[in-house]
């Protein structure tokens, strides 16, 4: 495929897709605050949200983003498209600030940029290869236990840590659930390609996706609702999701990532940048949250 096609189709599709994801997140962050808060994972929240037309519209925006992501991947390599999709963090922060009629907080923008830049650099350096869609026979349990413990600890952190720090815990759990869903969906898609429509129903993978996927989406809405600010939640979810998916691809599906000493060093720097960005977002959002609470103003800084 020519470079002109990649630049003319894949890049615009990925960027507009990222903007669609960011817009949907900003809308959902705002609308979830208009419904009563419920217990974690309570599906009653969906009943309240579906009666909000603007929230339903945000689901359509997500579908547009997903469609553009498919187009971008059809015309461009994964190593180009994935980093561009990460810019949804920045689009989301900009839309959230616009909806709240505030200027985007520069510290929050810097934290979001660190997360997006660190993740993009990690993906470019790692260069995931292979389109694994079948389990290789490697043990599933070790990584499953690690991911499960990470979700549990993140949910406990939401109870133990105050304010926006606890919300970051919810966002980590959401990102893990999204990543597991994405990783297992590759397996379901492979089963469909090889055995037809009925084939996935004969395997446990589809049923796990049907449970974990809605759980992740519900938790994302509750994360947006409980966080005074959107940027930290969206940045953490966007960062953790592809990392968890990549871990599944490498551990369970036989995919490979580049791992020379120089690349490993670069990946370590990228990981440090991501962690630093999350720390900046958590600290700054807690500070701004206290300021907004003192002013007793609804809304978001982005």
From TrEMBL:
The keyword Phosphoprotein does not apply. Keywords: Membrane, Transmembrane, Transmembrane helix. The chain crosses the membrane at residues 6-27, 54-75, 81-99, 106-126, 138-156, 168-189, 201-220, 232-254, 260-282. It is found in: Membrane. GO terms for cellular component: membrane. It is a multi-pass membrane protein. The keyword Metal-binding does not apply. One of its GO terms (molecular function) is magnesium ion transmembrane transporter activity. It comes from the Bacteria. It holds the Pfam family Mg_trans_NIPA. This is Magnesium transporter NIPA. It comes from Saccharopolyspora flava.
């Amino acid at each position: 495929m020519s470079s002109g096609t990649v630049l003319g189709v894949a890049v615009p599709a990925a960027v507009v897709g990222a903007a669609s994801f960011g817009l949907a997140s900003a809308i959902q962050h705002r609308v979830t605050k208009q419904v009563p808060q419920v217990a974690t994972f309570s599906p009653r929240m969906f009943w309240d949200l579906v009666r909000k037309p603007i929230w339903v519209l945000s689901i359509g925006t997500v579908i547009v983003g997903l469609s553009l992501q498919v187009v971008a991947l059809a015309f461009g390599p994964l190593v180009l498209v994935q980093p561009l999709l990460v810019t949804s963090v920045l689009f989301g922060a900009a839309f959230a600030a616009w909806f709240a009629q505030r200027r985007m907080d520069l510290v929050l923008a810097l934290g979001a940029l660190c997360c997006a830049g660190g993740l993009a650099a990690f993906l470019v350096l790692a260069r995931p290869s292979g389109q694994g869609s079948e389990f290789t026979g490697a043990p599933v349990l070790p990584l499953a236990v690690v991911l499960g413990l990470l979700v549990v600890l993140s949910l406990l952190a939401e109870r133990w840590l105050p304010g926006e720090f606890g919300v970051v815990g919810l966002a980590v759990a959401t990102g893990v659930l999204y990543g597991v869903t994405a990783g297992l969906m590759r397996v379901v898609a492979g089963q469909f390609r090889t055995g037809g429509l009925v084939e996935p129903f004969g395997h446990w993978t589809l049923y796990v996706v049907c449970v974990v996927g809605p759980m992740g989406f519900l938790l994302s809405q509750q994360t947006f609702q409980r966080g005074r600010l959107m940027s930290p939640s969206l940045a953490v979810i966007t960062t953790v999701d592809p990392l968890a998916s990549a871990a599944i691809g490498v551990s369970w599906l036989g995919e490979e990532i580049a791992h020379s000493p120089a690349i490993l060093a670069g990946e370590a720097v990228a990981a440090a940048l991501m962690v630093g960005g999350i720390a900046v977002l958590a600290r700054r959002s807690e500070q701004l949250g206290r300021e907004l609470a003192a002013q007793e103003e609804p809304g978001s800084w982005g």
